[in-house]
Amino acid sequence: MKVAVLGATGFTGEKLIEILIKHKFVEINYLTSRVPNPVSYSELFPRFKGRIFTKCERLDIPKALKKADFFFLALPHTVSMQVVPMLIEAKKKVVDLSADYRIEDTSLYNKFYNTLHTDKKNLKKAVYGLPEFFKDKIKRAVLVANPGCYPTSVILALAPLVKEKVIKRNIVVDAKSSITGAGRKAVIDYHFSNISGNIWAYKPFNHQHLPEIIQVIKGVSGLSYNITFVPHVVGIESGIYSTIYISFKKKATQELINSIYRRYYKNAPFVRILNGFPKLKDVVGTNFCDIGFSLKNDGLSAVVASCIDNLIKGAAGNAVQNMNIMCGFGEKEALLSVCQGNKAL
Ligand SMILES: NC(=O)c1ccc[n+]([C@@H]2O[C@H](COP(=O)([O-])OP(=O)(O)OC[C@H]3O[C@@H](n4cnc5c(N)ncnc54)[C@H](OP(=O)(O)O)[C@@H]3O)[C@@H](O)[C@H]2O)c1
Asked: Whose CA is nearest to atom 30 of ligand 1?
């Protein structure tokens, strides 16, 4: 299958190439960014020398439609929704990594992303691309909204418990993200001397991923939860670690929580339920989400921890997982080998 990556020079675009290069059934046929002139992708990223011969060029829609059947959009939000209508009109399949098709209520999108949604028509067609909960819909989808990185780690930890209605409505999420979560653009705060060895909290009540988390948690449980979500940025290159504080409606046991998680993720190849708390380095460079918990002695509250690589399970890896499901390839195709920067290839 001929595949295009739009936004191929960003962090998630580069990670997509790293994964797709190992995919048995795809040919990477069209790559774009705002480069002034076409340039060999491996000239931009020398670690791909000898492994990919496609050029990176500015987006030209008629050419894109001829070159590829399946599109990954690793573009900033608002840019994706300028492109998607033309791709869907031409009957192409799309996985969009931006937030443009994730939030069903456009007034919330407008508020949290401080812009105006311009493609309600395709928003209605979009399927939220978290395979662990929406695989059947993803199989039939033409447009998949790949989840945000924080939401992936939080929803995978919470969804089984809220679906089973065993926890109380108040939930606190303390989540920590590496700096690649903010994309490749230069930002003063992320200069090495500012971020190295540093950590800070930000946007405790108005982070743009909050409405996405609330929407999906409500969607799977039918209930509204009061979620306090406090993101942090940490001076590390990869990963997200979410620590989640929950209380139970009735006294819970270790066996009960374990059995809920194991039942929900029995057929989920990329979610691993651990006996203790997960460690970030065990998932960095992989498409896994590791989840563990600790129950208080009285059985009334617990701490759950969940971690992922933000660029892989939180973006490119999950996007390829979605493509595999949409196109009938094996769900794990190209996703089991570890990829870590230069060591990936
Ligand atoms: N980083 C993460 O951990 C993460 C996780 C999940 C989802 N996401 C989402 O995935 C998308 C990509 O994120 P990223 O971190 O890869 O961002 P990034 O590093 O900033 O890359 C953005 C890509 O889009 C291109 N681009 C930027 N503005 C453009 C425009 N106006 N027209 C055409 N192309 C443009 C850039 O190319 P040039 O600048 O070279 O032109 C680059 O290739 C975003 O929507 C982000 O929210 C990111």
From this structure: 79
Question: Per-residue b/e over 235-267, b at no fewer than 16 CB within 10 Å?
Answer: ebebbbbbbbebebeeebeeebbeebbeebbee
- Using the atom order of ligand 1, give the atom closest to the CA of residue 13: 16
What are the pLDDT digits (tens) for 243-279?
A: 999 999 999 999 999 999 999 999 999 999 999 999 9
DSSP state of 315: I
120 lies in the same domain as 94: yes
**Residues 292, 182 within the same domain:** yes
User: Do 160 and 300 fall into the same domain?
Assistant: yes
Residues 216 and 228 in one domain: yes
The total domain count for the chain is 2
CATH code of residue 106:
3.40.50.720
In this structure, the chain runs to a length of 345
CA-nearest residue for atom 25, ligand 1, is 7
Mutation to probe ligand 1, out of 15, 109, 184 (largest number of atoms < 8 A from CB): 184
Do 260 and 248 touch, CB atoms closer than 8 A? no
Task: Give the three-state DSSP class for 83.
Answer: helix
Residue span of the structural domain in which 127 resides = 2-147+312-344
| Confidence tier at 337 by pLDDT (50, 70, 90) | confident
pTM of the model: 0.97
Ligand 1 pocket at CB < 6 A: 7-13, 33-34, 74-77, 79, 97-98, 148-149, 180-181, 183-185, 310-311, 314-315
